[in-house]
Design goal:
Elements: H1 2-37, H2 41-51, H3 76-109
Helix pairs in contact: 1-3
Length: 110
């Protein structure tokens, strides 16, 4: 049972990290805009180019590498809301399972 509790604790940490990523993705453009205003224009352009690589229907130009961490969404606001709701449900389930496993371990020790 300790393994199950440990698994759920690790699962909770992973879910927290996913929530942070979704929030960062949702708030990223606003934060980026504020940061870019404080940067030299040349530096901001370099960072913008890295954050938003060009999309090509044909073969990428020489020197361009494929990024697998960029996801293009039609309407990110809706997706973020849905994903946060799903992750919060997962977190609640995870915590509920941890309480059950801990109660079992506590009762076992009595």
């Amino acid at each position: 049972m300790q393994e199950s509790l440990t698994f759920e604790q690790e699962r909770e940490q992973t879910l927290h990290e996913q929530v942070e990523l979704v929030i960062a993705e949702a708030e990223g453009p606003r934060i980026d805009a504020a940061v870019f205003e404080r940067m030299p224009a040349e530096d901001a352009e370099i960072v913008r180019a890295d954050l938003s690589p060009p999309v090509h229907d044909e073969a990428p130009p020489l020197g361009y590498f494929e990024r697998d961490d960029v996801i293009f969404l039609d309407d990110p606001a809706d997706v973020h809301d849905e994903e946060l709701a799903r992750l919060n449900e997962e977190l609640e389930d995870c915590r509920r399972r941890q309480r059950a496993f801990q109660a079992y371990l506590d009762a076992l020790g009595d």
